[in-house]
Amino acid sequence: MKRLQRKIKGIGAFAMLLFGACGNYLDVSPDLRAELDSPEKVGELLATAYPQANYIPFTETLSDNVGDKGTGNAPVVNSAPYHFEDVADIYQDSPTYYWNACYTAIAAANHALQAIARHGDTEAYQPYKGEALVARAYAHFMLVTLFAQAYEEYAAASLPGIPYVTEVEDVVIKRYERHTVAYVYEQIENDLMEGLPLLDDAVYVSPKYHFTSAAAHAFASRFYLFKKDYAKVVEHSNAVFGGGSLQPYLRPVNSMAYRSLQYLELEAEYTRADNPSNLLLAEVPTSWGRSYPAYRYGFTVSELNEIFGENPTGGIWTYGIYGSETVLNIPKFREHFVKQSLHAETGIAYNMVPLFTAEEVLFNRAEANAMLGNFTDALADLNDYASTRMGYSYQDPVYVPELHSIDRDKLLGFYGTFSMEEALVKCVLDFKRANFLHEGLRWFDIIRHNLGVIHRTADNRTLTLGPNDPMRILQIPQEAQRSGIELNPR
C-alpha cells in the first residue's frame, strides 16, 4: 500500500512537470505500471483522480457575492480576484494551483485507463474504467469552464479551449494544443457518456468520495446546462434520484432540528458524507474554511441585504448568519489540520468541499424546464426548495404553503416582467446565489449567463467586469507556455 501511494505521488509530479512545476516522473512510472495489477489497486489510484485543490477562493471573490470591508486579511488570492486582476500566486487556493491539480487528476485517470487496457479491459475493471472516464471528463470540464470562454454553440468551434489529455506521457516536455471549446466539450461528452453506464456503486467503501451513478448524473446535469441542451439536463437530473420531487434530499435548513445546531455542528453537518444532499465530496488542501469570514474582500452587510432580502415567496430566509459586521458568514466548512509530525506546529489545513449536491440538481432541472416551457415543473422544484429554506418571520421561521408558495402572478410581479421563462430563470439564479454563498458556484452562473459584476472599494472606486471583458477568463499559468500552450488575451 505505501509503495503504491509513493508512486501515486509521482503521477502528480509528472502532471505538474508537464504544466509548469517540477518532478521526476521517469523514475517512478515503471514501478507504478508494475503495481497496478488488480482492480483494487486501480481503484486506489483513482482516489487521486479528483482535483486536490480548491476553486472557491478565487471564484467566490470574482463574483458579486463579495464586497470590500475596508479591513481584514487580504492575501493576493483574495485581493487580486476582487480587483479583476490575474493572481500572481502559484500556491494553494490560486488558479495556477487548481490548474495543476486538475492535470494531476487527469494523469491519474489516464494511468488507471492504461492499466485497465493492459489487463484486457475485463469485467472486473469496468466500474473503475467508468470512474476514470467520468473523473477525466470532470477535471477537463472545470478547466475549460474557468480557463476558456463559456460555451456558445455558434462560437465554440472558433474559441480556444484547453489541452484535452487522454494518454499517459513518457516524455518530460511535450507540446500541447489548446484545441477549441467545441472539441473539448465533445471529448468531455464522449468520456462522460462512455463512463457513466460502467459505474457500479457497490465497489466503493466510501461512495460519497467517488463518482457514483448519482454523482455522475449530477455532473451530466451541470455539463448539459452549460451546453444548453435542456432536455438532457432534465433527463440526467431525473436520473440522480429516480425522478419526482427532490425535496426529501434537500438540507432542511428551516427545520427545528437544523436551526438548533450550534456553529461547529453546522460546519460538520454541511459536509457530512451521510447527508443525502451531498452527492460528491472532495477533501482538498485549503485555508478557505478558516479564512473566508475574515477576508477583507468577502461577504458584507450590503451583500447580506441584497442576497437575503425580499424574495418571491414573501417569506424570509431562515439561514443563520453568524459573526459581526466584518466577519459575517454561514458556517459550511470544518477544517481538518494535518501536522507535519507528531509535535509539529505547522502542517496542512484541509476542508471537505461539496462538488455536487441535490440542491444544484434541483436548480439545474428547474432552469432547464423553464427554458423548455415546462413552467409547472419548474415551479414545483422552486416550491420544493422554498419549503426547506423560507419561514414566516424571524420569531416564527416556519414555512406556510398557503402564504409562501410561488405561483405565476407572484413571480411576474416580483420580477416586473410578462415573461414566465425570464421570471423563473431569475428566481432560480437568485435562489442559487443564496444557497451556494461561500461555495464559488455563483461565478459559474455569471459566466454562463454572461452577467456583469461590479465591485466597489473602500476608497470609493468602482470596478466593473463587463460581459465581454477578457478578465472573465482566468489566465493560463505562465509556466504552461513551456508546453506550447498559448496564454489568454489581456
Automatic annotation (TrEMBL):
Pfam families: SusD-like_3. InterPro entries: SusD-like_N, TPR-like_helical_dom_sf. Residues 25-225 form the SusD-like N-terminal domain. This is SusD family protein. It comes from Parapedobacter composti. The lineage of its organism: Bacteria, Pseudomonadati, Bacteroidota, Sphingobacteriia, Sphingobacteriales.
